[in-house]
Design brief:
It is a single chain. Helices cover about 40% and strands about 20% of the residues. It has eleven helices and eight strands. Helix 7 packs across helix 11. It is globular and about 50 Å long.
């Protein structure tokens, strides 16, 4: 597989978009929002269905936000989100983070949420993000770290889920444990140590409603999404094994004392 090529492991099945449309600037980009100013120009890479993008546009009312994704189909949903909110300062386009079709120094902020874990060349992607970010601007990246995810109670099938997901993601050219590597990748991409602020934050699912939502989307994703097809076609799991893992998700979701945490690494890189 070419260095800059990777397959998006999750795809855009309904069970995936169920998760993506839950994301907001508040729950997914809080490390960045305090640095935004009303006039800023923002590039939101890997914007998906556009919920974070729309939030960013509301935070820069005199500025402009451009959301880009490799999948044109999901951008239709993003445009609908912006239209429903009456946002006139946001636009969307198809783009590849490894070769952005924008001049140098085009944006005040270049943002990517849950993107670098899915690309073939994260260092090259960061260099490209830096190229289109103006001097004095910010490159902001947040990625989950699968190996650092933790849950209670222990359900053996979920250990199998984690092992399987990491194998499938790496076979697709990605790095599922990206969160811990962001600072290292940024340094390799040419950002200075003093210019990088590293933080971490987590999503936590513990209420009955949260458990039902999180376990349900992963149970469905495990048997019905592009991830499921790639797991089987790649020889990583059988359909029976996937059904077993999906059932483990449902068992965890029904536990009254269930708790799940998703750790994210975050970096703010000054250009």
């Amino acid at each position: 597989m070419p260095k800059d090529a990777a397959v998006y492991t999750h795809g855009h099945h309904e069970s995936v978009l169920r998760s993506h449309t839950w994301r907001t600037a508040a729950n997914s980009a809080a490390y960045l929002t305090g640095h935004l100013r009303p006039h800023m120009r923002i590039l939101d890479i890997g914007c998906g269905p556009g919920t974070i993008t729309a939030d960013l546009a509301e935070l820069v009312p005199q500025g402009q936000v451009t959301g880009v994704d490799t999948a044109d189909s999901v951008l239709e949903q993003a445009r609908s989100v912006a239209e429903e909110r009456g946002l006139a300062n946001v636009s969307f386009a198809v783009a590849d983070v490894h070769a952005l079709d924008y001049p140098d120094d085009s944006f005040c902020v270049v943002h990517a949420h849950q993107v670098l874990q899915h690309v073939g060349d994260p260092v090259g992607a960061l260099r490209e993000m830096r190229r289109v970010c103006a001097p004095g601007g910010i490159v902001a990246v947040r990625d989950s770290d699968y190996a650092a995810m933790t849950w209670y109670p222990s359900v053996p099938g979920l250990d199998g889920w984690l092992d399987l997901y990491r194998r499938v993601a790496r076979a697709n050219g990605g790095e599922p444990d990206a969160g811990r590597r962001l600072r290292s990748w940024a340094l390799e991409a040419g950002f200075t140590d003093i210019g990088i602020t590293s933080t971490a934050s987590a999503w936590c699912y513990a209420t009955e409603e949260e458990r039902a939502w999180w376990s349900g989307l992963w149970a469905d994703r495990t048997v019905a999404s592009s991830y499921a097809r790639r797991a089987v076609d790649g020889g990583h799991a059988t359909e029976e094994e996937l059904r077993s893992i999906a059932e483990a998700w449902r068992v965890w979701g029904e536990a009254p004392d269930g708790w799940f945490a998703v750790l994210h690494g975050e970096i703010l890189c000054r250009v």
